[in-house]
Amino acid sequence: xxxxxxAVAFFASMLASMGVGGGGLLVIYLTLVKGTxxxxxxxxxLFFFLFGAFPAMCVHLFKRKINAGILIPLCFFGVAGTxxxxxxxxxxxxxxxxxxxxxxxxxxxxxxxFKK
Amino acid sequence: MHLSPxxxxxxxxxxxxxxxxxxxxxxxxxxxxxxITVFALSxxxxxxxxxxxxxxxxxxxxxxxxMSLSSAAIYALSGKAxxxxxxxxxxxxxxxxxxxxLLMDKIKPAVLSKIFALLVIWxxxxxxxx
Lengths: 116, 130
Description:
The complex is a heterodimer.
Chain A: H1 2-17, H2 25-33, H3 38-63, H4 68-91, H5 94-114
Helix pairs in contact in A: 1-3, 2-3
Chain B: H1 9-29, H2 33-44, H3 53-77, H4 83-103, H5 110-129
Helix pairs in contact in B: 1-2, 1-3, 2-3
């Protein structure tokens, strides 16, 4: 199982740093394959994403155009949103959290599938 | 790093609203903010031609890092997540992150994106039905 954990983490992080959208892949693996509770999987995924994103950001910083005029409001309002999002999450019943995440995946999957 | 701001006030307002929504999704689900951020930046790139698709993905990664850092701190401080649980996944995450960033110029992620979309749809249905 450790080899599978490693492989899933590697490919999920690789896809996320390529912009394919692997950010939620580890949550899917943890909940559907390993039977981890939804909230626990979300917490693991957050730390996992930070460790995968940081080295990828170092590479992108030298190879891409990062527009600070766009990035600063994105980060400021994004971080403000996370505070409200956490509050909303604490109000949601645990069973509903998993189903709501499933709905988010379904919508984002359909969008990605039919996007040109 | 370029310092030019986005073009119009309505563009900035749109960006801020989308960033707020992305943050809320990230706070609730611990992921998913990138979908909204990519959508917002793709719309903005129609008026700001200096943003290529790869620049959009890179900018999204930076923004998602800030949101995830904030969410991870809140989750950890409230006892809803522990960094120790994530330990087995951190080294492959770091290696995968570097590998993906370097590979971005070498391959076209379009096909990968469609395969990933199908996987996500299956997972979404599975989670709803569970």
